[in-house]
Amino acid sequence: MAGGGDLVYFSSASGNTARFAARLGLRALRVPISPKDAMPAPARPYVLICPTFADGEGRGAVPKQVIHFLNDPDRRAGLRGVIATGNRNFGATYALAGRVISDKCNVPVLYRFELAGTDLDISRVLAGLNKFWGTECLTMA
Known about the structure:
Number of strands: 5
Radius of gyration: 14 Å
Strand content: 15-25%
Number of helices: 5
Distance between the termini: 20 Å
Helix content: 25-40%
Largest sheet: 5 strands, parallel
């Protein structure tokens, strides 16, 4: 990502989001599963990749660890966009965490993918991030 930022992601024990982030081959910081572990401190603007854990009514869509991460004003200030992941079997709550984070933090949802993503998802995200970081400097004051 020429002139771009970092990725920050959360992945549960299933490892789907971690596998996706690794396949991107970009610098990525992980929000830890255990609340005892230190949170990453992104030094540059970043895009967050977040899975959805909503119940049937949409409650609990954003993982508690991600809420904790974003509740810090310094970490939240670097957020520029969100990529959401989920399982299409959950219908209306598919990738809901992305919409929740987007609404609360006033950043765009850049992409949505299912489970660990496909090769097409990887290529689309890489192309999209290159374009996003390339245009961000033109739009940021």
